[in-house]
Amino acid sequence: MPDLSRRSALILGGAGIAATAVGGTGFFVNQRNSSTTSPAIPSGSDLVEPPELRSVSGTLTVDLESSPQQVTIAGRDVRALSYNGGVPGPTLRVRAGDTLSVSLHNGLADPSNLHVHGLHVSPENNGDNMFVTVAAGDSFDYQYELPANHPPGVYWYHPHHHGFVADQVFGGLYGAIIVEDPDPIPASRERVLVISDITLDSAGTIPAATAMEKMSGREGDLVLVNGQLTPSMTARPGERERWRIVNACVSRYLRLRLDGQQLSLLGIDSGRFEAAHDVDEVVLAPGNRADLLVTGTAGTSVLRAHTYDRGMSGGMMIGGGSSTAADDVALASFIVTGDDVATVAAIPGQPIPRDLRTATVTARRELIFAMGMGGDTGSGMGGNMGGGMGGGMMSATINGQVFDATRIDTTVQFDSVEDWMLTNTSPLDHPMHLHVWPMQIIEQSGQPVKTIMWQDVVNIPARSTVRVRVAFDDFSGRTVYHCHILDHEDSGMMGVITAN
């Protein structure tokens, strides 16, 4: 197995396993269809996974409604956002070559839309089109055609209307997408773990983010696993579980540990290693996902969130600095008890990932992520910017510009390979997300990356560089790249790219 240092894991958003989140209180959605209110799920109850919708005969058709709902959090009635009455929304399971049709009804008071994060699908028309606006009360029919060779893995969906993204995701709008393996990987069971965070005020509502929170990227007081407070999972010794983990937090990095258990990482985002990596911790930037195998060892272990230092903002350290026991947060318990089970079949080898290090590069460019003093942060998609910083506060830019939906920032040649230097001049980490086309990480801080690592969210540490290569194949059209600290995206740290 290639040697991945802990620092490399932190920078690249990938290898290791641990837990990084802060806070912790359960979040159970109860859509009220009667006068009876379901009780909150108490701490330590069994993990509850979102309902699953599976494709049949190559098609999955989904009606998805985003709306404010009365929900119960730790015994309190609060108002939050949800897809189809649940937080998270339903898990969508598809296969390569499938057609995923989603009819989105916007029951919110603000405009919205839908992004299928990480899927390699067309950005045009009613595909993964970031320039669609679904007005309050309106609907839009999306259709995503997955290529026959689409990578298996963990993906997710969430709103992406500029100026409203952070508020809507923070409010509860997110759900997992699983693209199944063509050949199953032996496991005793599979679990979907969507990790998110939220803040509630004394009135049981989600307060507006402050200017400082927008500058640094908000982190909620409560950290949730499938909307629950420290749920429990049980297994028998020797059982191998497959955990599909999504970091659905707006800004929080997750440094995940499950000490005492055997962990093997299949991949991060759409990237799959040729052989599973034995790991101790996994670091997920906002938007990253992990495909993890957990083999049970007798005893009780705790999935913990350890602090992650993502830099300084206004002289304030974000994430609490180095990890200490006092800063660790229990996210879930894993209880392994009973008789040993028979040895599970070996983890099969995976296809050798595509490697662009020897590819012909047609263009080289640099994207500079910066934060500085500025006025109001540019034009959005139809007037109301939602949560822009504005008013002389910090501006968030790429190559000195804030997002403008009417401007093309980057034009690439379809069916070409480009080499991008991602430069972060700011004192905060910025996780960069490119829609449609995944990125191969080639170099970080001037040092070559020895393993083949593909991700669609690549962390750029504060005052550092990461070099990636991108194959702009299969799909032409216009989409975006941006910081996945969603407050930074809403404040202008996003650019428009077209492949033609």
What would you note in describing this structure?
- It comes from Cryobacterium frigoriphilum.
- It holds the Pfam family Cu-oxidase.
- This is Multicopper oxidase family protein.
- The protein is mainly beta and 500 residues long.
- The protein has two domains: 52-308 and 327-336, Immunoglobulin-like; 363-374 and 393-499, Cupredoxins -  blue copper proteins (Immunoglobulin-like, Sandwich).
- It is 5% helix and 40% strand.
- The chain has helices at 6-12, 165-170, 211-216, 486-490; strands spanning 28-29, 52-54, 59-73, 76-83, 91-94, 99-106, 115-117, 139-145, 153-158, 175-179, 189-198, 222-225, 232-235, 240-247, 254-257, 262-268, 277-278, 281-284, 289-295, 299-306, 312-313, 316-317, 329-336, 363-373, 394-398, 410-412, 417-424, 430-434, 439-444, 447-448, 454-455, 457-460, 464-471, 477-483, 494-499.
- Strands 24, 25, 27, 29, 30, 31 and 33 form a seven-stranded mixed sheet that branches.
- Strand 21 and strand 22 form a beta hairpin.
- It is globular, with a radius of gyration of 21 Å.
- Mean pLDDT is 86; it is low at 1-41, 320-326 and 375-392.
In whole angstroms, the N-to-C terminal distance is 39 Å
For the record, the count of structural domains works out to 2
Number of strands: 35
CATH topology of the largest domain: Immunoglobulin-like
- Looking at the overall shape, the CATH architecture of the largest domain is Sandwich
Shape: globular
Portion of residues within helices:
under 10%
* CATH homologous group name of the largest domain: Cupredoxins -  blue copper proteins
The amount of beta strand, in percent, is 35-45%
Characterize the biggest β-sheet. Answer: 7 strands, mixed
